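Example for reference:
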Amino acid sequence: MRFRNQWFVLTIAVPLVFTTVGCSISQKPQSMQKPNTQQVRYNESMRNTNPSNTTKPPVGQKMRTADDVSDALVKMNEIDAATTVVIRDTAYIGVAFANNYQGGMTSKLKNKVAKKAREIDSSLKRVYVSANPGFVDALENYARSVREGKPISGLVNGFMDLVGRTFPSSQ
């Protein structure tokens, strides 16, 4: 019987020891290899730029009035007053309709104004036209500031914000 008890203890103890030793945490030294990493490169040359907003001119860009264009537009039957401000090759034109003109700002009239503006100033590639009274008033104020020789650097940002609100498709 004693032999049976020893045999019973041995059959339970041996698997218990193997289980305990096999499931214990291994005490190996850590690997000297670096973890797998991937180098990331950033394009530092694009810092502080906003290529998606194309309406903002470069710093120091010249803003000018085009009174010759405005004068030619006033001679049209539909238009009583016009103000034109040009930045690079883009003209922004604000118009007030003549009293006898019954229509509104149609795409046909916009195209007619743009065509006339390009006839007068061949350097113009884009022409934006609006009869919105708020835009026309603000445009007249900017044109007056340019004629008076006020610093343009402060005017350009405010002007481009106005353009972005009036002509959202230009962005």
User: Anything to note?
Assistant: DSSP finds five helices and four strands in the chain. The radius of gyration is 38 Å.
